[in-house]
């Protein structure tokens, strides 16, 4: 019976190891794609939104309603 006891433990650890391996591979793919996109002429500004921190296009003018 002692021979059977370690076997379920190794079976329960195997799915965890498999899951961790899958997550590591996914993270590696994600990092690789991010590195490729950063190297592919995005320039200094890595933001996907162009002009997010610049001045606004036109200043708002407030007019009083007449009447």
Could you describe the 3D structure shown?
With 67 residues, the protein is mostly helical. It contains one helix and no strands. It has one helix at residues 6-39. The longest helix is centred in the middle third of the chain and has 34 residues, at 6-39. It is elongated, with a radius of gyration of 28 Å. The N and C termini lie far apart (95 Å). The model has no long low-confidence stretch (mean pLDDT 74). InterPro entries: DUF5302. Residues 1-67 are annotated as: Disordered. Residues 10-28 have a biased composition (Basic and acidic residues). It comes from Sphaerisporangium siamense.
Write the SSE topology.
Elements: H1 6-39
Structural class based on helices, strands and sheet pairing: mainly alpha
How many strand units? Answer: 0
Order of helices and strands: H
Q: Outline, from the CA principal axes?
A: elongated
The Cα radius of gyration reads 28 Å
Per DSSP, what share of the residues sits in E-state strands of 2 or more residues? under 5%
Number of helices: 1
**Biggest sheet overview:** none
Q: What descriptors fit this protein?
A:
67 residues; mainly alpha; 51% helix
How would you concisely characterize the structure shown here?
Residues 1-67 are annotated as: Disordered. With 67 residues, this protein is an all-alpha fold.
């Amino acid at each position: 019976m002692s021979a059977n006891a370690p076997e379920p433990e190794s079976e329960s650890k195997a799915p965890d190891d498999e899951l961790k391996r899958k997550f590591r591979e996914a993270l590696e793919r994600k990092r690789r794609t991010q590195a490729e996109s950063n190297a592919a002429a995005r320039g200094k500004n890595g933001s996907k939104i162009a002009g997010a921190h610049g001045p606004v296009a036109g200043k708002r003018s407030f007019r009083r309603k007449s009447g």
